[in-house]
Amino acid sequence: MPELKIIGAPQSTFVRTTRMALEEKGVAYTLTPARPHSPEIDSLHPFGRIPAMRHGDLALCESRAIIGYVDRVFGGPKLIPDEPKRAAMIEQWSSLVANAVFPAVFPYFREYFFPASGTTDRAAVDAQLPAVRHAIEVLGNRAKDGFIAGEDFTLADMYALPILVYLNRLPESRDFIGETQTLDAYLAKHAERPSFRDTTPPPLGK
Ligand SMILES: N[C@@H](CCC(=O)N[C@@H](CS)C(=O)NCC(=O)O)C(=O)O
Predict the structure, then answer these.
(1) How far apart are CA 42 and CA 99, in angstroms?
(2) Closest ligand 1 atom, CA of 106?
């Protein structure tokens, strides 16, 4: 089997989700750090986003496509089970986290971590807070049972945890997490899971 190469900055939530999925399956891979819109990424993703993947003569982008390919090609526990209803629930919550929660909180992250003017704009942060609060409440309601897609640890948790780590570091979202009464326990429950612990990213900007 050729080497599986993941390309993307380890600080990216989507890169971490992809790495967690590979770790959960026990698939060996190498990580080549690359920023969005770097030349290699622009050659692999039409919108310059991370992660990307190379495996033999196959090049892929988009975390869900990479994870789906790995799940079909490699052994190890199935990330998306065959049972249709359980699979659909995992897909539904993975998609909601990736395509609704992440876009709702990313402008808030950007204002703190990569502000356009070089310093965080208070009014811009405040404008994002209703969307951030709603996204956290949605995750908080799901986390009541300890897992985003119910029953057990799934791909939906692998999408949610890397986002929650950053939300837990910023002041307003940290307060919203505390208000849910469920997400602190959810984060503590999964903190020592090897796929999560072993993909802890270096600080942003490194
Ligand atoms: N749908 C993509 C989203 C990837 C994504 O948005 N990655 C971010 C980093 S966490 C990125 O590359 N952003 C750069 C941009 O949007 O221009 C996936 O699942 O891989």
Answers:
(1) 21
(2) 10
Pocket test for ligand 1, best of 14, 35, 64, 106 (most atoms within 8 A of CB): 14
159 lines ligand 1 (CB under 6 A): no
Instruction: Write the pLDDT tens digit of every residue in 65-94.
Output: 999 999 999 999 999 999 999 999 999 999
How many angstroms separate the alpha carbon of residue 43 from the centre of ligand 1? 15
How far apart (Å, rounded) are the C-alpha atoms in residues 182 and 76?
30
In tens, the pLDDT along 119-151 reads 999 999 999 999 999 999 999 999 999 999 999
Alpha-helical segments (H) within 74-149: 84-96, 102-113, 122-142
Instruction: Determine if the pTM surpasses 0.85.
Output: yes
Name the CA radius of gyration of the chain, rounded: 17
